[in-house]
Amino acid sequence: MPINDTLARYSDLSFETAFAVYLLALVLFVAEFTAVRVRRTTSELVLAAATPSATPSEEPGRIVEPPRREWSDRLGRMGVSVLIVALILHVGSMVLRGLATARFPWGNMYEFVTVTCAIGVFAGLIVLRRPALRVLWTFALIPVLILLFVAGTVLYADAAPVVPALQSFWLPIHVSVVSVSSGVFLVSGVASTLFLLVLRGEKRPQTGWGRLAQRLPDARALDRLAYRTTIFAFPLFGAEVILGAIWAEASWGRFWGWDPKETVSFIAWVIYAAYLHARATAGWRETRAAWINIAGFVATLFNLFIINMVVSGLHSYAGLN
Predict the structure, then answer these.
(1) In the 8-state DSSP scheme, what is residue 215?
(2) pTM check: above 0.85
(3) In this structure, are residues 26 and 145 in contact, taking their beta carbons and an 8 Å threshold?
(4) First to last CA, the chain
């Protein structure tokens, strides 16, 4: 089927605009992060609880004005609004790419990374909706922008039909599950990284790391965020491995052949399983479990870039020019 070049150009324009709006959202979140009040230490909280409140008693007939919203909160709300606009443009670029090619828009690495980043942003809008966690966008958007920049430059591929091996009804099923799990794992990996940073900062509160950590949510909140997002993505990732095996049997006549892509996917699944086990094991549930979770995300990125771009195998469908 011929490619609609006009829709393809609009798709690229929408992608580039979305990238610029994401950058604007990041600037707003960075401004919010620098303006947010430093989180008080445990000793300060105990002292504040023991000190009587200095708030004057209410008088009959007195009009009490509601407290004004902090400047950091305003910046954060603007950042979320801009982020939603960027996500709409982002999704619009994928829809236009699909309409231009008359297929699902995840037939090469450019399209897959684009879809994965969009799902990661959507997942972040859900799990980071609380004001206390909103400051994490400062760090969550950085890997998204890096991945989108790589996708739009190094990985970019012109709109075209997919190779014959991918012309299967399994493509949207298998790749969509991979994209959802990978996008959620991105949020989980960022949360575990910041969890380790906060723990380090709490040990050295007077250092630069310590002052940075005091602007972030407490370590337990970050640990819970990493665990809950992994709990959601892990079964999807396992389903992706199973669905890939079924597709492999239909295409190549075998369920498993220890292809590099299959092998590293299985290794990443084992690492995430080890993280969930460590998270529930005394003595492992803090820093050790967080490092395992980060290792799982690194394995996922290795599987996406190194295996697709460097190692030759049956799954070499990067679509690079």
Answers:
(1) T
(2) no
(3) yes
(4) 20
Round to whole Å and give the CA distance between 293 and 243. Answer: 23
Question: Any idea how long the chain is?
Answer: 321
**Cα angle vertex 263, ends 257, 267, to 5°?**
150
> Sign of torsion, CA 175 178 181 187?
negative
Give the Cα separation of 185 and 301 in Å (integer): 10
- CB distance 198 to 218 below 8 Å: yes
Task: State the pLDDT at residue 181.
Answer: 92
Domain boundaries, the chain: 1-42+72-162, 171-316
Task: Quick: pLDDT tens for 142-171.
Answer: 999 999 999 999 999 898 887 766 677 777
d(CA 108, CA 118): 16
- pLDDT > 70: what percent of the chain? 83
Euclidean distance between CA atoms 32 and 22, whole angstroms: 15
The type of residue at 179 is S
Helix residue ranges, H only, the chain:
5-35, 42-50, 71-101, 109-127, 131-134, 137-153, 170-203, 208-213, 219-252, 260-279, 287-309
pLDDT in tens, 216-255: 888 899 999 999 999 999 999 999 888 888 877 877 777 7
